[in-house]
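Q: Transcriptional regulator, AbiEi antitoxin, Type IV TA system, please. Structure only.
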Amino acid sequence: MRRMSIVFRRPDALQRGATDRELQRMCTTGRWRRLRPGSFTDSTEYDALDAVAQHRMRAESALRAASADAVLSHQSAAVLHGLDLWHTPLRAVHLTRDRRTGGSRSALRHVHSAGLDRSEVVEVAGRRVTSLARTVVDLARTLPFEQALVAGDHALHGTALTPDLLEDTLRSIAGRPGSRRARRVVDHLDGRAESVGESRSRAMFIRKHLPLPELQPNLYSDEGERLGRVDLLLEEHHVICEFDGRVKYGRLVPVGQVPADVLWAEKLREDRLRDAGWQVVRWIWDELATPQVIIERVHRAIARARKSPPPTGRIEHTPKP
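A: Structure for Transcriptional regulator, AbiEi antitoxin, Type IV TA system:
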């Protein structure tokens, strides 16, 4: 694990004998990176971090300098909570103050003014942030549908967040800007989605008015043999949809196997599913950028299924968490 860069604060540096001219020279020469006025870090270590880790450092620095009633919110809170984010702007740090007015926005900091219930503020790693439910709802109010769905699915899948908590939070923001957008996102969240790619695939189905799939069902043969668990199932249309993320053939390869072993096992699994009468459609990450290609593939599979005998065996549905 990479060591987190150390943040240098101007008062501490001056107390140790540095001067403002020296601090300026360190930034001018590129040795230090200014996170915000009065806060610096080592440029080499900072540049080695990914965008999420860089945002976390800037967010923690901004929170230390903010007023006592400020908490990290929106995507900054999502970063602290460890939620998956896709294509989500991370340049500006988001803070919320429990006030009716007084919001402000700059290139590097977005301060929201909004009422916060005591239950909507928690501590993560010693930092005050909006709760998971409030964070997901705030993202649903402000981000495009697909980005908000990715974060919300992950929150329901990988944390203690429940649909009831989301409903309580939705009621608390009723009538505020973005509340109707948030309702649409929350209505479509599903904690059975296991990856960013699966959530993006569902967003595509929703946007393009395709039949909504069942997530993560287990399929069995007539003899009771488990054929496998599939990502997305169009049960009434007899079509299985699979998202092939590279991680399946990378860091999640079982110990003692190589990616070729996983590919072979996937082929055998798909053969069994096809033998049971299912049509199988696959797509990869890059194809999500051209959804029409996937949509046409799904429609062709539905057309083939209409001309074929129905699948045999049974389906075991996975309940929502």
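A: Brief note, in case it's useful. The chain has a mean pLDDT of 90.
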